[in-house]
Amino acid sequence: MNCQDAVYSNDFYDILVNNVDIVQDAESICSQGLGRDYKVYYVNREEVPPLSINTYYHTSIPKLYTTLDQTSLEESGIIRVQNQRNLELKGRGILIGFVDTGISYQNSGFRNEDGSSRIIAIWDQTRPSEHPPKDFIYGTEYLKSDVDYALSQPNPLDFVPETDENGHGTMLASIAAGSEDLENDFIGVAPFSEIAVVKLKPAKQNLRDFYYIKERAVAFQENDILAGIEYLGRLADERQQPLVICFGLGNNQGDHGEAGRLASVLDAMAVKRRNAVCIAVGNEANARHHYYGSLSPSTSDIVEMNVTENMRGFHMELWANAPEIFSLSLISPTGEVLPRVPVFSNQQQRHTFLLENTTVIINYQAGGLRSRNQLIHIEFQNPAEGIWKFEVFPSVVYSGNFHMYLPMTDFLEEEVFFLHSNPDTTLTIPSGAALPMTVAGYNAYTGGAYLDSGRGYSLEGTINPDFAAPAVNVFAQDNRGNYGTITGTSAAAAIAAGASALLLEWNIGYINNPIVNSLEIKNQLINGTMQMPNQLYPNRMEGYGRLNLYQTLLRMRNV
Fold first, then answer.
1. How far apart are CA 133 and CA 318, in angstroms?
2. What is the pTM for the complete model shown?
3. Mean pLDDT over residues 426-439, rounded?
4. Are residues 504 and 370 part of one domain?
5. Which of 358, 384, 418 is at the close of a domain?
6. Exposed / middle / buried, residue 156 (Cβ in 10 Å: 0-12, 13-18, 19+)
């Protein structure tokens, strides 16, 4: 079997490591470099132990991510900026990149007036070929010349067989970069920008089984996402072109702060000159999947979790900032007790509750790549219906704070929730990253809040989200070329990505600031945010306020 086959085969595990890690017999194992810092190895599952948090470590098993599903542009001050005669900012010369479900390239929203495409590259990870992108071992790359040729033919899909079956990526691209359509009263935020797309391949079944992902859920692997980000960065470097990355995916398991692998990669992209990165904060605020506790020495906390029937299993996590250390015990719905599990790093405790016929596996680990934050990882196999109770004990206490997370709603087969959940600190990963723009959502039609929008702050207490953008019924073009609406913070991130493209165009072309990066773009947008009366800012729901690009330019003019 060649290496490309291993990428797609469910008979191979994908194991993520740092480049400095030593892997036994590495020269004989297929691998894919993921930039300077990381690598994924494809190992035959018959030759290694089964996937287990204790065997492979939490950070080595790829996490799975899912999608975060005109009035909006007017509220964000974008239409006024587009129509300013002395500026007419439309994203000229800026590349906007999407790592998502793909793009329907035949749509009118991605074409120039002469019918040619504004899409300069598509990397379809789902389609094996003999000619993957340079330095990658899988997928198929289509360049603008390929797309333009296909569009000139009676049946374009015969030449570039690209579709977006889900539609999420197409809608985000149309919001951020869609061409103007006067007949349908539609325009994207940066309609003259160029577009690059990574169509992510679906997660392997062995990982879906490991995480108990429900059958029809959309799920993508962390390593494929990392490869997609690396591809966009290389593409922009080769073209010497400013790059905006729109990231509308997320998950609920992993380090919810700055120390995660994906957060570190997006941080590195954000500090590069002429780059901007926009990340959606997710829609988990009201999902009841987060519990917050605070303990003092010699106390404990009882955490109650409701599990419905007919579940194969699920994973949950307890996180605490280093050097805090916690331990826990577990009480089943019938009252059977798993006593307090001692704290030993990389120690696993397995227990079967006889009356419930439920197995629980508890692992203690240091969970962060760039920190020693404590992780208690808990796996439920065949969980019985009812109220499960965790008693959490402090072992080493400074602040005494801890957070517990259940998987995202889209991944769970049935409903599982905390009885006394907390809507704060519900940013999905990787929106705890320090340097990119993390974008919350609000309702531009009513002026009110979007209550599902993930709330800050990050696990370290960093002020995330940075600001909010419209997220409810945002007008977009779908994968069939029709116009409709999308609700979710991924739409807010797409609006922010388009606004970042216009601001990059202004910085580079109008005020001669060629070394601008995502951190500076973020600060400029924060400086122009509109703040609601009777609200304290920054706050957990909207950060420093609501995106208003026109106000940003006015305030920069007056500096």
1. 39
2. 0.94
3. 94
4. no
5. 418
6. middle
